[in-house]
Amino acid sequence: QVQLVESGGGLVQPGGSLRLSCSASGRIFTAYDVGWYRQAPGKPREWVASITAIRTTNYADSVKGRFSISRDNAKKTVYLQMNSLKSEDTAVYYCDLDASWGQGTQVTVTS
After folding, report:
1. Comparing C-alpha atoms, which of 88, 106, 91 is closest to residue 14?
2. Is 89 helix (H, G, I), strand (E, B) or coil?
3. What digits encode the pLDDT tens for the residues 58-91?
4. Contact between 81 and 36 (Cβ < 8 Å)
5. How does DSSP assign 24-42, residue by residue?
């Protein structure tokens, strides 16, 4: 069983930046792909980015060029660096590892 804890969300103005963290415990971390997802009010959860065990990264078109995903296996943590934030990035952000989910962290982009 794996436990995931997301952190780093907050309130930011358009054009600002945030770095989200997803910390894992309870399972070998290095062998797993990790994904970031988000869910805005009234909308389904959507995939944002993912990083494989060998650090291959992929991004949704809506965040490509603005977001960057990385991992620190020694810390069992995956990061999502979010730059040039837009109001439409407002959502609760979740990380996923082998179908386990954290509680999410709220990101609000507003002027």
Report:
1. 88
2. helix
3. 999 999 999 999 999 999 999 999 999 999 999 9
4. no
5. EESS--TT--EEEEEE-TT
